[in-house]
Amino acid sequence: MKVHHPTTLDEALAAVEAGAVPLAGGTDLMVEVNFGHIRPDHVVGLRRIGELSSWEDRRIGAMVTWRTVETKGPKAYAEAARTVGSPQIRNAGTIGGNLGTASPAGDGHPFLAAVDAGVELVSRRGRRVLAWSDFFTGVKRTARQPEELITAVVLPERLPMRHAFGKVGVRNAMVIATVCAVVTRDEDGATTAAFGSVAPTPIRAPRAEEMISAEPKPTESALAEFQRLVSEEVQPITDHRSTEAYRRHAAGVLARRLLERCLR
Amino acid sequence: MTLLVTRRSGVTDGVGESPLRPDGIPKLKGEFTYAQDLTAEGMLWGATTRSPHPHARILSVDISPALAIGGVHAVLTSADVPGRPTFGLEHPDQPVLASDVVRFWGEPVAVVAAEDEDTARRAAAAVQVEYETLTPLTDPEEADRIDSVFRRMRVRRGDPKISGPVVVEGFYEVGMQDQAPLGTEAGLAVPDGHGGVDLYATSQFVHVDQEQIVASLGLRSDQVRSHPSGIGGAFGAREDVNLHIHLCLLALHTGQPVKMVYHRSESFTGHVHRHPARMWYRHHADREGRLLRVEARIILDGGAYASTTAAVLANACYFAVGPYRCDSVSVDGAGTRTNNPPCGAMRGFGAVQSCFAYETQMDRLAAALGMNPLDLRRRNALHTGDPMPTTGQLIETPLPTVEVIDSLAAIPLPDPSDDDPLPGGSGLTTEPRHVVRGVGYAVGIKNLGFSEGFDDYAQARVRMTPRGLVVETAAVEVGQGLVTVLAQIARSAFGVSTAEVRNVDTSRIDSAGSTSASRQTQVSGGATHAAATRLRDRILEHFDADDLDDEGVRSGDRIIATWDEVTATVWEETVTFRHPPTSPPDPDGQGVVHADFAVAAHRAVVDVDPELGLVRVVRVDTAQDVGKALNPESVRGQIEGGIVQGVGLAVMEELILDEGVIRNPNFTDYLLPTILDAPEVEALLVEQDGSWGPFGAKGVGEPPTISSTAAIAAAIRAATGKPINRVPVRPQDIAL
Amino acid sequence: MIITFELNGAPASARVMAPVSLLDVLRDQLGLPGSKNVCEQGECGSCSVILDDEVVCSCLVMAGDIEGSTVVTVEGLGEGLNPVQEALHRAGAVQCGFCTPGIVVTATDLFTKRPRPDDDEIKEALAGNICRCTGYGAIVRALRGLAEVER
Ligand SMILES: Cc1cc2nc3c(=O)[nH]c(=O)nc-3n(C[C@H](O)[C@H](O)[C@H](O)COP(=O)(O)OP(=O)(O)OC[C@H]3O[C@@H](n4cnc5c(N)ncnc54)[C@H](O)[C@@H]3O)c2cc1C
Ligand code: FES
Ligand code: FES
Questions:
Q1: pLDDT > 70: what percent of chain B?
Q2: Which of B217, B244, B270 is the last residue of a domain?
Q3: C83-148 CATH fold
Q4: Co-location of A16 and A145 in the same domain
Q5: Would the N or C end of chain A have less CB density within 10 A of its end CB?
Q6: Which atom in ligand 3 lies closest to the alpha carbon of residue C133?
């Protein structure tokens, strides 16, 4: 068993290249270990690398915790952060770890998808920023190469004027999303709607977005149509947490309510 | 209404007060020793190989790959069980280790002991078992049809031809709830070097564990000692044997102490669950709302092995009508045998399931009659002196059904406030305009103590020492506060202020029975009360004294002997207490089958977001028949804890099965209520004289879970107009 | 590998041969069984410890990664009962007690950082600590009472 404790990104990248598994807050990784699914014997802890925890303007370091996003993130991102697990989980869990896991239910993802954020990846060979849609490739699968580290989330130069997050779950706290969503609305009416837990990756609802973006002052019937299109566009499954029918329904209702919140 | 327990003057921390728990400080400091925390010199770790199939034939078991792992000391299979190959609480039908067939997902097939936990688990995984999978029987209705049952119940009372002008019918379902005590199954077995063994393990009933261990180990009774141990909650999950025999086998086989602790996912397969239920009901009433006839058919799925299914089913059927008068009743019940996980005791023990059905029926009847639901219940309320609607047994102890309903109705109902948390919680799904409030009521009844002729007794020993009274018992403290209340009973019955409860093992005292059925305060409390009273009388007589207090025995104002002088000789009293006898039912389910009853009423207030199907339980108020509250603070703790378990069953807790396989055996997906899900609770304790428990106490542990679920379901129904004929209520049941 | 860190105010070290959790090391190696193992997946808070001034679930902390860190467990909260423990004790907030060490650690951290929390803050802080016995009523009463005293 070898655990590196680097203080610089370069040292960490060297360890990753040598096969060490990156460890951020451990809130996903250690569950896998405790349940016997993985047993890494070469690990690199990222906690001590200052530049990964920094937050400069629209570049949010991968080691920023949900606790920090909750207190200083953009509104919808902060709202999402507040629903991640419990205080203990938010104190440890990071945005980079959330992306590293790439769970379909990751609560951080809809915001990134809704604002068209990028994910910064760095290896010893270089740095690249992938659009969120290129980063997520499947259930718990990403375009990250084994020798790369996720170093930051890169927000667009300007965020839409209004944005709101919501998450449907059976419990009032500490719950995996049955559906989670972010809707954004800009001054010119441009609307985006992004969802978690309704497809293998976070997704947008382009038809619903297009339809509602064209409505400067959405009427009751336009809102209903937006809701209907969202329900149609999402691709949920039935599992032990919920049913396809409910997830479709809830995604539509949630999207409509979030849009209403943005319009107010 | 509230008559406080008469306190004995001069005694502090006696009955009627709420002294602090004696184990509180060590628990708060992390110093209390639970079964999980035990260690011994040279200790090995045990682990279990479990079936990945709900039903399969075992073709072969190859233990050599496990034995080949360094540090492994033993790998045992069914061939290594020297005595009775099976165990079971009521009927020994469950293999200690499966030999030819596995009948549920997670059934133990082999156990290993190794030098550390990790090695033990790897060795358990290395045992090669070849299976031929068989089709699992997982539908309880199918099991009923093909007569795969542990017990059928038939209750017939009164004229079956009666029917009423007002009839309501319904079908109801209850999902599989888990006790989910925070402490998982754990234990340490220590060989005594002479062929015997001492076991320190999680348990609710050490004597019945000991009997089963003795039988399967093929030892003499005196060779196995089962010790009460530190327990992290129970709620029924610890009545059955799970790792107990395995640990003793491994310890005797290796000659070394062996410890085992189940992981959470293993715990979900390692103990029994609350029976899922399917229930068909028809109520007949006259136009004034009097119940004329109740017909019910109840299927509880017992899963693969018997456990306590027979008794749980009986309870569901005996309480199928609820605390209501009715002179024409027919109930048919089946406790089915399937390849689902075994079910057994959980807080409420069958009464929870039927309560959900009969209380929904009562609401529907009230609606059909245009009556207020509480008036309908008052009109039919069962009183002391009435026959039980099902068994015909005359109710001889106080049964304040009307009083609990009236007390509950008198608790003010706060208006909605802007501060009320919204459904959806931190998910920010819901605004006040999306919320509908609903209020629902339910009343429940349950027996106290064991029934149907079971010889239900408890032994306790009370000794006076220079430092005060010592109560010895094998009754298990699972968190409910028995260690506090037995000391209170001893102080008040004897007349001094210092008393301490000590748990002793099975070799040093006779059984205290199970810490279940809400019985220990009444039964072990009864034994403690009798022993303390007798000891007091003997001491007074011996010293020709007329009183005693904290200083010594007195004659008038004068101390005639201090406690140091008195305890120069041993003064102790051992008493075995039995509650009033019960008998098995006749073929129609008639007879004096119960020793005592308790009722409780609940009023739930819920805020529902009907469009998303999200529920926030705002408050659950209750009035409960407690006989006499010996420790009001701990009664309140039982009530609040029981209600939150009722909230769990109402809106979130369910083991999801897929062809016999549990899909959510973990705390990520088996959701327990958090502090943000817990409702406000106001509890009124309704006290009455006349129960046979010490100082008139009744058991209080189970009633809070019985009708709270039904009340919450009723409130959701009131808010949404949806039928809500199944708990837990899922978002899709409301929204779609 | 050997890791060294500060545990309950004193230097400590542990030998870590596998990707085990801090919880396992505390319980099995360092003789501190106060932190409880209940779910091993961060869902119950019974294993809560204060790591570098933040409450976390020790079941999700990889022991090999705490080199140089500061850890406070329930055993490290000092002699006697602290005000949080005292309040919980008096309110009858302990039943089986299995959740209690985690609740004590979490609530102690809350009161250290925010001596007069309101009800919402109390509940929010304890949202990750499951108690199966008490229904939380006595826990809330205890901490509410303590916050009032602090006011
Ligand atoms: C009880 C509980 C509740 C939870 N609730 C939620 C919830 O409500 N919503 C939600 O979205 N999530 C939830 N999670 C999941 C988890 O907390 C989050 O996904 C969190 O953001 C993970 O971050 P971490 O720092 O702990 O990641 P880790 O566990 O440290 O890492 C996760 C994965 O990412 C990899 N990784 C980490 N950092 C990097 C990096 N910089 N570069 C490359 N790879 C990296 C790791 O190797 C690992 O595979 C919950 C988890 C628990 C235990
Ligand atoms: S054991 Fe760590 S949170 Fe449950
Ligand atoms: S007191 Fe038992 S879990 Fe909290």
A1: 99
A2: B270
A3: DNA polymerase; domain 1 (1.10.150)
A4: yes
A5: C
A6: 2
